[in-house]
Every structure is written in C-alpha cells, then in structure tokens.
Amino acid sequence: MAAVLGPVTNYASAAVPGWAAQAWVIWPVFAVLVAGSIGLLLWGRHLDAAARPPARLAPVSRLARGQQASLRPPHVQRVRGREGELAVLAGMLRRPQGRFAVLCAVGGMGKTTVAAQLATQAEAAGWRVFWVCWRDGAELAQQMVQAALACGLPEAELEAARAGQASLPDVVWRQLGRVRRWLLVVDNADEPHEIGPAGEPVADYRGWIRPHGRGLLVVTSRDGSEQTWGPCAQLLPLEPLPVRPAGQVLLDAAPVAGTAEQARELAARLGGLPLALHAAGTYLAGPTSRYRTFAAYRQALEQELRFLLGAAHPNASHPQVARAVVRHTWEVSLDQLAGEGNALARPLLRLLALLAQAPVPLSLITPDLLSVVTGHDVTAVALEAAFAGLHRYGLLGLPHSPGSTGPASGSSEGAQVVLHPLIREINAVALTAETSDLAVWHRALAERLTTAVHEANQRGRAGWPAAVLLAPHLPLLLDYADPRTATHHRTTLNALAQVLQKAGAFGAARLLHERVLDVETRMLGPEHPDTLTSRNNLGNALFGMGEPAEAVRLLRQTLEDRTRILGPVHPDTLTSRNDLACALDGTGEHAEAVGLLRQTLNDRTRVLGPEHPHTLASRDSLGLALDGMGEHAQAVRMHRSTLDDRIRVLGPEHHLTLLSRHNLASALTRAGEQTEAIQLLRQALNDHARILGDEHPHTLASRDSLGLALDGMGEHAQAVRMHRQTLEDRTRILSPEHPDTLASRHNLALALTSAGEQAEAIDLLRRALDDRVRILGDEHTHTLSTRNALETALAMSTQRPQSRWWHWLLRRNVAAGGG
C-alpha cells in the first residue's frame, strides 16, 4: 500500500512523473485503489458482525441458563374471570402506541397470574417474551441487559455503557426501540422508588421503566398510584373475582369437593380473592385435610379462620413465601410502607379491621384515637399519609369512586374507605396475636364512636350523612362494652337510631334497634321497660321500611305488654297505642285505627295537655285515619287545627309542621279543594326539599301528593311527569316493593289513564296489582283500589267514555288512594 501511496502523494507535487501523463496507466491504478478500499470496508463489517450477537432475535431458551433463568415466564393453568384485562393487554401488545401497562392491586389479587397468562398467549403468537422478577436494582439491570442482548444489542454499545460513556438504561431502551414483537414483564415491582437508577422517579421515564419500546412493557405492582407511574402508564387495577368465575377456580382445584353452587357460596365468603381461593382449593384437595367439602370449609371459617387462612407460616420472613400465604401477603406491603417511614400504616389498618364490614367515614378515625392505641403522638399529617399509603398499596379502597386517586378525593364531608372482607378479618386476627391488651383498643374505639354519634346529633340535618355511615359500626359498642358502660352505649345506639328515622334511613335504624333489642332481651328480660321501648322502636322502623304486617304484629304485642305492665295511661303505653294505630291506618285498617286514635288523643290531652307534641301527633294521625275512611271534611278541619298549633308550638319549619301542611293539602285534594291543595303542596314540597333534602321520604310523599292534585285539576301531562320521577326515585331509594313505591306506580297509571295513555297505564296497573296481591294481600284496600283502577282502564281502552262518569271513576280511584 505504501508503494501505491507514494506516487499518489507525488501526483500532488510540482514534478509529475512521466508515466503519469499516460491516461491508460492512470485509470487502471485508480480502479485498483477503489476496489481495495471497498474490500477493506466489507472485511471490517464482516469482522464486526462475527464479534456480536446477530440482529435477529435469539430464542429465550438460549439465554435461560444460570442467572438468566428468570427470563422465562412462569407456567400458569387456565385463568378465570380476567378476560377483560387480558383483552386490554392483548390490544396493547399489538399496538403499544407509546404506552406501557401496570397490573396493580393489593397482594393476593392475581397480578402475576394475569401477566403470566398474557406471556403464554404472546409466546403462542410468536412474540419473544422476557420475564424479569424484581428483587433489587443490580439484578434488574442484569436481566434488562440480557433481554436487550436477545433483541440484538451490539456488544460495543454495551461496553460503552460499562465504560461510563453512555447511560445503561438508555442503551437498553434504544435497542428495544429498534425491534418489534416482544413482551417484557417486570413482576413484583412493589417498590418503584427503588427501581432506579438512583434518584430517578419512575414517572420521569429516564430509568428502567419506559414507554419507548416498540414492544410492550407490563409491570405488576401493589402500587396503583397514577403519580408513581406517570401519564404513559395504562393502569389496570384488578378487583376481586365475580362469584361465578371465583367458584370455578375452586372447582378447578377441588373438583369433587361439592356442587357449583356450594363452590360459589364459599367463593363469596372468601370475597373472590384469588390467593384465598387457591389456598382453599389446595387445602380441600389435600388427602389429609380435615375438611374435604366446600360447605364444610365455609362453615369452619366462621370459627377457625385463624387456623385456616389466618395460620402463620414458619418461613414467612422469606418474601416469596409471604406473598403466597394469605396471612402474610399483606404484611409485605405494610413492611414496605414502614420502610418508607410510614410506620402508622400498620396500626391504622389493624384499627380499621376492628370496625364492621362497611364503609368507614374518615372523620371517625382521628389522630387522638391512633395516639391512644399506639402510645405515640400522632399528627393529622401522619394519619393522612397512612391512609394514602394504604390506598396506594390497595389495602383499602373507596366506595363508589373507582376512578379516585386517594382517600381524600372528593368532598371530605362524606369521604370513606372500605376494606376487603378477608383483609379485615386477617388483620383482626393479626392484632389479636400481636397485642396483649385488646381492651385498650376496644375502649378507645367505643369512646370515639360515642363521641361521633354526639357530633352527628348536634349537627341536625347536616349530620344525617355521617349518622348513616356510623350506623353499621355502632353495634360494636354492645360487643365491646363492659357492664359499667352497657346502659350508656345502648342509649347511644337508640339516639342515633332516632336520628336515622328522622332522616328516613329506616334500614339503618332497623339494624340498630334489632341489636339493642337482642341485647336488652338477654340482659334485662323481655318485659323490662327498656326492652319494650326497643321493641316498639323496631316496630316503627319496620313500618318505615315497608313491612307493615310484621310492624303491626310487633306493635300490638308491645301495646298489650305495656298495658299490662305499665298501665293503660302510662305515656309509653299511649305511645304504643298511637304507633299501632298509625301502622293499622297504613295497612288500610282505618276503622280500628280511628278507634285507637280517638282513645289515645283523649288520654294524651288529659295526661300531657292539649298542646304537647305527642298530643298534636295523635291529632295529626287521627286526621289521616279519618281521611282514609272517607271523612274528608272532618279530616280537613283536624289537619288545619293541627297545622296552626304546630306552627305556634314547634315553629314553621319543624319537620312535623311540614308534615302537617302536607297532610292538610292531601285531605283538601280528596275533598275536592284542588286550588288550595296545590298551593299548600307546592309550599310543602319546596320546604321539604330545602329542609330535608330532595330524596327524603317526606319530600317524595309531597311530590306524589302534588301529582295527584294536579291530575285532579286536569294537568295530566304535568302529573305524569311528576309521578314518573317520583316512581323512579322511590324505586331507587326505598326499593321496588316498598308500599310507597307501589303507590307511585298506581298513581302514575291513573295519571296516564287520564292523559289517554291506556296501554302503558294498563301495564303499570297489572304490575302494581300483582305486587300488591303478593305483598299486601288480595283483600287489602290498596289492592282493591288498584284492581278497580285496572278495570276502569281496561274499559276505557275498549269503549268511548261518557266524560262525567269516567272522570268520577278516576276521582274515586284517586280518593281510594294510591296508598
């Protein structure tokens, strides 16, 4: 080459050799030089290619040796109930579009299983699959490099990164951006802040987690925070399995342990938690297990949960063991939170586990409460961080807020959290095992519950939402109470129940009354005055819930017992007589109701005085019963007098005053005084909505009555709209079979009949008749009213009506009452 280069160099000098002047010499020499250069270039590329892995993707099996074994995905059996999540992942696998997926949920929800199923599907479709199991930063870096090498990463680029000339994550992800058809799973990435490199938040996408490749990255993690994973993450939170696929999981594991229905019952008891289902199925399939059927295992859980799913494992300190054992899987998350400096998360979760399986209002848990049970000072900031940490790791959820990002989202007034049933039960077991004096926790919680009830009562209507949330947890007072506080705690429950009845939350009130009655019957005896009061309260709650027959039975028994034990004119006896009469009136027994109410009104006027609130209540109830008997004029006079007295004694906006205005207006409607009735009903509806709320039962009753009055005035279209809205609201709030809901269906049908919409009216009346026959009985007055209305509507659909007679028929059905 030097001999050739010499003449070339001389070619640029002033003295040109003689042979260079000949063209036939110059062009061959130039051609030789070009050919030599091309040959050297091709030879160099050949040597480079021989020194590095081929650009074509290498089989994973070639890498799966020694420390590279984790690149192989785990084998899974058939996955049940995750079709939706797998469909989303399959779509992302085909078109990642600059995003990566995060399967996130509390421990035991089956994140790894879903990812492994996706890996199986991807391999079957020809994708290269790399499974990286997170343990620490160094091992993650090594496994990511191995995946990049399998995707054709040049050794020279890797050496440059090792020499500090380039970022190793940059080098790896640059190569992952060059090739297609790969799936990379990073499993158990539960501590994203440790993934690194050090100091790099995951959401910055400068570390090992990036959305930049041309394949799909899937991460499984207990951390479900959008803030953690950033805007390019497609979060796929896993929920408990529905009952049917959850039952099938049990049948897959233990096919001879019982029927599909029994498997579903056990699955429901386990809350659809995949880890618990797997544990139960494995146990049932064991040849030496004590319980071999789904039914036996479900029954045993009630007494032996701590020995079955709550059993401690001797090797629980090993992370992989802890993840696979129901008792310990959530301790992994609590350890991680403690490692982040959130030591309050564990005692907070234990405290929540002592409450009922119902939403817990955040306002119930205070720093002072946690200070008492932990023995350390707790600040509001630390408590908020503990709630946020538990939510981030999926250990508590938010009811009715699937898209919320933290427990404090939305209005703090009604903020609440929920626990999975098994998380609650297992944490209660753990607290029992690690705490020597549970009485301290119980006393602190009882005191806080009592204070919370007092706070709700003091706030009036503004405290009703809090009262409804507190109701499921109040019975714990009876479980935790000692004899010195038992009476006080029963009084607390009764006080909250009365608030709930004012709020129209009869179901929650019934729960409290039932628990108090059960305890008092056992502790005080069935004829103790307090027991009789609780029985009467329960009867009223049952009537409010739409169970009039049971309410009448209970109230009649209580009246008989109080009359015998306390005497016929004792105030409690008079209360029982009044309440029984109201229930009888509500079931259509107007004549008996009027007799009882006349007697009660006379006795209350004599014993309590003519203006006592209880006396006014008897007068109001008597007016309703007289109206039900058809004595509309007398009912109007009585309601008008009661309304005047209640305005003077209780005030114009007291809820009983509003009720008197509504009752007067309803009586005026039936008496044919439509103009005054509509004016009063509009006022009553506005006042009820403003003071009690749009969905209070009294507000709905005012709207229903206004619809009847409008229909009587010939405003049929407006009446139809009002009745339709009321029917929808009562169906949702009270239940489809509540007597008030049946009344709304009846009244909507009447308005439709008046408006000429016979087809829909007939359909509604047939449904209302079937329901009233089944719920109220074939001879109940409301059933008879619906049957008459149906006959009228059927006749109108086949004949041309004579207007006066037909309108009389419709008014008769309105007066007979939709109930």
TrEMBL record:
<dbReference type="InterPro" id="IPR027417">
    <property type="entry name" value="P-loop_NTPase"/>
</dbReference>
<protein>
    <recommendedName>
        <fullName>NB-ARC domain-containing protein</fullName>
    </recommendedName>
</protein>
<keyword id="KW-1133">Transmembrane helix</keyword>
<keyword id="KW-0812">Transmembrane</keyword>
<keyword id="KW-0472">Membrane</keyword>
<dbReference type="InterPro" id="IPR053137">
    <property type="entry name" value="NLR-like"/>
</dbReference>
<dbReference type="Pfam" id="PF13374">
    <property type="entry name" value="TPR_10"/>
</dbReference>
<dbReference type="Pfam" id="PF13424">
    <property type="entry name" value="TPR_12"/>
</dbReference>
<dbReference type="InterPro" id="IPR011990">
    <property type="entry name" value="TPR-like_helical_dom_sf"/>
</dbReference>
<feature type="transmembrane region" description="Helical">
    <location>
        <begin position="24"/>
        <end position="43"/>
    </location>
</feature>
